Description:
This protein has helices at 20-38, 51-60; strands at 3-5, 13-15, 41-42, 64-72, 81-85, 91-92, 97-105. It is of the alpha+beta class and 107 residues long.
Amino acid sequence: ISCKLVNNRDSLQFPVGNDPEQTINNLQSALEKYKVRYHYKEIPDISGMPIIDAGDILDANGIKWAVEEEIYDRTHPPGYVVFQNPRPGVVVKPHSVIYLKVSKGQE
């Protein structure tokens, strides 16, 4: 398969025929290499989990976290993660902090 570089990096090569599936695979591969090389982390989905479990998951993945706010929430019991920022699936730089909003239960 003939490829062309989109920049000066070998990690970003795309087939000349521009097959969409192959292009997506190449982009995913390049992102994975980038995350490993620069120690970037992908944020897991911890919304709806007890804060204890969510903290354990984030700690195990080497992701710093903080409870930004405790809020009243009808849909989550007290102590459960209602919202996380950044959102799940976002790739963050090393030493980034994920901020959590945790339920106080119903008002």
